[in-house]
Design a protein that fits this description.
Elements lengths: L2 H54 L3 E7 L14 H11 L10 H4 L7 H13 L8 E7 L2 E3 L19 E9 L6 E5 H8 L6 E7 L16 H8 L10 E6 L9 E2 L4 E2 H11 L13 E3 H20 L8 E4 L3 E2 L10 E4 L58
Length: 398
């Protein structure tokens, strides 16, 4: 091969390399640009999703109305109200809407009958709730069936409170023909049910008033009378309004002194915290649903009351749906979400909802030593007992 022939060959190879490399650089450049565009789109999508997610995610709001102060000489409230309402609010703190303030959680200043009638409805109506949200309300006060109003001759007067179940407000007083300071329970439930959420659960502690001839109370008839009152069609309330009462006919709301709690509120707190989502009550899907919660609260409340009293006291929570009346636990429809369970609380014991265990169940890290004879055990929380058996299912209430 001569030098004159070699030069053209080198020239051809050089041109060929330049021609082949040019499209590769273009493809790489186009690929880089497309990758940057795709990354930008993904980043913008993530940011938009984070900003808009709260608008499409349902939340659980919580309010409490507690009346635990009455005039001296009139009534005595069930104790441990502050402990109960604080624990209930803490069990739902993770799910509250970001714009629900502490002031709107505990309804302070609504303890009188006038405030409940005139201001409570508008206050609840202005809560930051949407139709997809859930409201859990806790109401606690003494309650009674208002006696008939009679004139001086003993003739029954026309009075809208006659034989109606009433919440006893803080301005309760006994004077004249009928006690004053009463608010119809149906009116209170309607006021709470006016807010815009599609599902409302109202837990009512009826108190422990069973006998007070001064006020015309001769028996605990409140739950029985509510069967008819809650069966009437809804008037002001909207959506599905469920009510769970602390006890049934002739019963009362009991307390447990060592824990400074009421049976009903403590069971409700445990259920909302996630225990109701665990077997045998729930399906473990990190959602506490209405049927799961009501089965749990009913079983634990009744068992704790029996255990603490040695079987002498009964307390069986009751469920109503506004516009329907009393609903058996087995007929509460499934798949009605009440609150999400925080992942950190997924490990709640399935059959031991309370955190404290009897000393005999606590593991010991030391060698067993001789012990003195055991004293008779005092009644403890339901954690020390096997889980009650949930009721069998029956056709659900629409």
């Amino acid at each position: 091969m001569t030098p004159s022939n070699a030069a053209p060959v080198r020239t051809v190879r050089w041109k060929g390399t330049s021609t082949d490399a040019s499209p590769q650089r273009k493809y790489r450049r186009v690929g880089l640009i497309l990758g940057l565009i795709l990354a930008a789109v993904v980043l913008v999508s993530v940011i938009v999703a984070l900003l808009l997610a709260p608008l499409f995610t349902w939340k659980t709001a919580f309010v409490s109305l507690v009346i635990d102060q009455y005039r001296i000489g009139s009534l005595v409230a069930v104790p441990f109200a502050n402990e109960d309402k604080t624990a209930l609010a803490a069990s739902l703190a993770h799910s509250l809407p970001t714009d629900q303030t502490t002031d709107s959680v505990h309804l302070v200043g609504f303890e009188t009958s006038a405030a409940i009638r005139e201001k409570l409805g508008s206050r609840l109506f202005n809560l930051p709730l949407r139709s997809k949200d859930v409201l859990v309300a806790y109401v606690r006060a003494q309650s009674m069936v208002a006696p008939p109003s009679l004139d001086a001759d003993g003739i029954k007067r026309t009075d809208p409170l006659n034989n109606k179940v009433c919440l006893i407000a803080s301005d309760f007083r006994i004077e004249g023909e009928r006690p004053r300071g009463l608010v119809p329970m149906r009116e209170l439930v309607e006021s709470i049910g006016r807010e815009s959420s599609s599902t409302t659960l109202i837990a009512i502690d009826f108190g422990d008033l069973r006998w007070d001839p001064r006020a015309g109370v001769i028996a605990g008839l409140v739950p029985k009378m509510l069967d008819d009152e809650f069966a009437e069609p809804q008037r002001k309330a909207t959506g599905a309004n469920w009510v769970v009462g602390s006890h049934d006919l002739f019963e009362y709301s009991g307390t447990y002194l060592p824990e400074r709690r009421t049976f009903f509120a403590r069971s409700l707190e445990l259920g909302l915290s996630g225990a109701a989502d665990a077997a045998p009550w729930g399906d473990g899907d990190l959602l506490v649903e209405l049927d799961e919660l009501l089965r749990f609260v009913s079983a634990w409340t009744s068992q704790w009351a029996r255990q603490s009293s040695g079987g002498r006291s009964l307390q069986n929570p009751v469920v109503w749906k506004l516009g329907v009346g009393r609903v058996p636990l087995s007929s509460v429809p499934p798949n009605i979400a009440v609150v999400r369970v925080p992942t950190a609380k997924k490990k709640v014991a399935k059959d031991k909802p309370a955190s404290d265990k009897p000393a005999s169940e606590k593991p010991s890290q030391e060698k067993q030593q001789p012990t003195a004879p055991e004293k008779k055990a005092e009644p403890s929380s339901p954690a020390a007992q096997p889980a009650p058996v949930p009721p069998q299912k029956s056709p659900a209430v629409p």
